[in-house]
Design a protein that fits this description.
267 residues; globular
Length: 267
């Protein structure tokens, strides 16, 4: 996976909520760099369809690569929930990038491939990150991070998406087993059995203890970002009193998201 676009992630000052929790804030400050944007577009595309598989997958449709991706694979921002799904997928992929390249967790990135309906979101936990020293020798210091992601990419009135992420993150406790199993299945389908063993290490916390943490993430355009709303975030009803809070914001985000999917279709 390409990481050249991570230079656009710029750490901002933390925000402290009214109840004393820290919110980590990053600005996605994108500059026009043709080579970086091309690599980033490939990086985005391959979450949905690997470049070495696309010609076989499209052969029955007789569509060009570009039309196959834009008409069958990528969310369609002009239909139904397509714009919201495109925004949500992109936000989650940004968070995958954050936990892999900044926080150094392993993440499978299998969530967006083999969708039956391109304009719907995949069920289960949004983003899972793993740190495992040795799959054959489970260690209590191994870590599983579970992240719930909400996006408001449009230039609209601010909503407290981080609070929504906190509230929905509480559901991850109940659905974690299913989400882990889905990750194993998707990796096996790709014949990545060694990677699947990393996830399997975390499927039985009772007999093989590890550190489990939760995060709530909001991805905003600059217009929909509100520091005042963020300060109102309340985590008191979440089962993890140490839940991590993260916000990523970017100027004219939805416009950029649509542009990136167009770039990703041109391969």
């Amino acid at each position: 996976m390409s990481s050249s676009h991570m230079k656009y992630f710029q750490k901002q000052s933390d925000i402290i909520t009214n109840s004393g929790q820290k919110i980590t804030v990053y600005e996605l400050n994108v500059e026009v760099d043709v080579d970086t944007l091309k690599e980033w577009a490939k990086h985005l595309r391959e979450h949905y369809c690997l470049d070495d598989e696309i010609d076989f997958l499209r052969s029955g449709t007789e569509l060009s690569r570009e039309n196959y991706l834009s008409q069958i694979i990528f969310p369609d921002p002009k239909k139904g929930m397509g714009a919201a799904v495109m925004s949500g997928d992109f936000a989650e992929i940004l968070v995958h990038d954050y936990i892999e390249f900044i926080e150094q967790y392993y993440t499978t990135r299998t969530r967006y491939s083999r969708k039956v309906n391109r304009n719907s979101s995949t069920m289960g936990s949004d983003v899972l990150g793993y740190k495992c020293l040795n799959v054959t020798k489970p260690n209590n210091n191994d870590e599983l991070k579970v992240l719930e992601v909400k996006a408001q990419s449009s230039e609209t009135k601010p909503e407290n998406k981080l609070q929504t992420a906190v509230n929905d993150s509480a559901k991850d406790v109940a659905r974690l087993a299913e989400s882990l199993n889905a990750e194993v299945q998707r990796l096996v389908d790709r014949n990545k059995h060694d990677d699947a063993k990393i996830i399997q290490r975390f499927q039985n916390k009772t007999d093989r203890p590890y550190k489990l943490s939760f995060s709530a993430v909001a991805v905003h355009s600059k217009t929909s970002f509100s520091e005042d709303l963020l300060k109102e975030v309340d985590i008191s009803n979440h089962p993890d009193s140490n839940i991590n809070l993260l916000v990523i914001r970017s100027d004219k985000l939805m416009e950029f998201v649509k542009e990136m999917y167009v770039r990703a279709s041109k391969c």
